[in-house]
Amino acid sequence: MVDGDGHCPFRIVFHHKQNALFEPLIHHHRHRHQKLALKRRHSGAGNLALRQQIFLSVFAFCLLHAIQLSDQMRAPQSFKIKRSRRSDRSFVSCSQTLSYMSAMSRIFVTFACLIFTTLAQAGQTPWVDVAPDTRLRLIFSDVLTSEAETMMALELEMPPGTKTYWRVPGETGIPLTLDNSNSTGLGEAKVIWPFPERLQTYGYVDYVYQQNLILPIKLQVKSSNPRLDMKLILGVCSEVCIPVSVQITHDLTFDARDNRVALQIAQNIANSPIPWDQQDNPFGRIYYDLASEQLRIEVSDSQIDMQTMIPTIENSFVMFGMPQKSQTEGLVAFEKLGGDVMQDLAGKNLTLTFMSPDGPYEYSMPLILSE
Question: Rounded to the nearest 10 degrees, what angle do helices 48-74 and 95-120 cross at?
């Protein structure tokens, strides 16, 4: 038996304003300079008065609905005697019991709707549509640590075939940028990047996330009433790449921990590379060979998956290709695809990101050039 009247009749629709598309440009190696295809401003918990009004209205409706259903339950009901056509035995069909069960289910759904409405206001901002079948929001742990830090995350839902990009996006990707300068009572916002997927399309190498993504962000808190006002620029690509700009505001509170969000963030932090902390050095000689224009790495730890290695150089636009195994045991080479002149990068910090049986790691050392 399905009782359609028991469902909550409210659906709150948020309006997003799309602004002019001609303001900022994105500097992009392959795509040239691009205008932002989509720019939105969205307020999460900024207008508390409006949110409280909506909540109280829903609460009043649900309470009134429950009282009416309770009165229906107390109304006298009749018993009907029906005879089975297949036997001479009679059975009792109690419409009062069915009415009672129906009313109870209505009350349960009504108060479940009320509880959901309450929970939906905490720990997250409403979804913002940024591309076809693609939406994002910010979620918050609502926990303030003893170091005056709190964890939040960018949650992005994408359909199959759609992707966004890692901290080093690759040859055709658009990097994520966060601007937290308009926030009050908040300091630096640091992204904690989960290990990406290397994707080669039409000969171009990118580092991407596909479908659903939760990207942890650590925030410094400097006041008791912090207000987030963050601008995000990111690339969302399927067959067409869309540079998206979104402005989101949210009043942070630390009254009650959001355990669901905290768990989601913790799971994705566990998938993020950490500095190599083992006693043994996992690599031998690491150098860039100027003659062959290759980065060459001697891998001494057989547990390291060489095909997952991603080399990056700090503060540079240098891109490397797919890992190539050498005839020499344990030697892997990366062809330079483009970017800065390597002679200008000697001594810069070279970071290798890779997978191991214990999870993802990072290993850093100064860049050495060899003739």
Answer: 170
Question: In whole angstroms, what is the distance from residue 364 CA to residue 352 CA?
Answer: 6
User: Do 283-370 and 17-45+124-272 have the same topology in CATH?
Assistant: yes
Beta strands (DSSP E) in 158-282 are 163-170, 177-179, 186-191, 197-201, 204-210, 213-221, 227-237, 241-251, 274-275
Residue 263 token pair? 């768990």
Domain 17-45+124-272: CATH architecture, name and number where available: Sandwich (2.60)
Backbone angles phi, psi at 277, to 5 degrees: -120, 15
Tokens of 290: 């100027």
**CATH number corresponding to 283-370:** 2.60.40
The 10s digit of each residue's pLDDT in 152-200 is 999 999 999 999 999 999 998 999 999 999 999 999 999 999 999 999 9
Exposure of 302 in the CB half-sphere (CA atoms within 13 A): 1
Specify the pTM.
0.69
d(C-alpha 223, C-alpha 245), whole Å: 27
Question: Quick one: which of 265, 253, 233, 260 has its CA closest to 46?
Answer: 253
333 close to 323: Cβ distance less than 8 angstroms: yes
Taking alpha carbons only, the member of 302, 294, 282 closest to residue 362 is 282
Q: Look at the chain and count its residues.
A: 371
Residues 33, 340: Cα–Cα separation, whole Å? 18
